[in-house]
Amino acid sequence: MTAMARDLSPLSKAESDAVARRRRGRNWAMFVVLLLLCAIFYAITWVKMTKS
Amino acid sequence: MSDLTPVRRDDVAASHVVPGDADVRDWIALLKPRVMSLVVFTGLIGLLIAPGHLHPVLGFTAVLCITVAAGACGAINMWYDRDIDAVMRRTQSRPIPQGRIMPGEALGFGVVLAVASVLLMYLATNVAAASVLALSIMFYVFVYTMWLKRRTPQNIVIGGAAGAFPAVIGWAAVTGSIDLMPLILFGIVFFWTPPHFWSLALWANDDYERAGVPMLPVVAGAKETRKQIVIYTLLLVPLSLLPCVLGFAGVIYGATALLLGLGYVWQVWLVARDRQDERGVSLTKDAPAKAAFKYSIVYLFVLFGALPIDRLFG
Question: B2, B27, B74, B260: which sits with the fewest CB atoms below 10 Å from its CB?
Answer without folding.
Answer: B2
